[in-house]
Design brief:
Layout lengths: L12 H22 L12 H13 L11 H12 L1 H5 L2
Length: 90
């Protein structure tokens, strides 16, 4: 991403493509899991949900959005962002 060019002397687009493909493969699996479960690890909100939501929010830094086809992932992320601590940035 151009915003990170100052931090990386030699950006390699093929690395970004490889990483995006791998991440979206995992997101597809996670989307299928979230179709039947409200959270990532247990039947309640855990650190796994926090790490996942923070990771996807961090991806916005490079203007990445998960594909729209991952509707269960989007629902889960919206639920995470709606939590009181997320709203105040804690």
């Amino acid at each position: 991403h151009p915003a990170l060019a100052a931090l990386e002397a030699h950006q390699q687009p093929q690395v970004a493509d490889y990483n995006r493909t791998a991440a979206e493969r995992f997101m597809r699996t996670l989307d299928r899991h979230l179709a039947e479960h409200p959270f990532i690890a247990l039947d309640r909100f855990t650190i796994a949900d926090i790490v996942g939501a923070v990771g996807l929010d961090f991806a916005r830094l490079v203007k990445y959005r998960p594909p729209e086809e991952f509707t269960h992932l989007a629902r889960w992320l919206d639920d995470c962002r709606a939590r009181p601590a997320a709203k105040v940035g804690v």
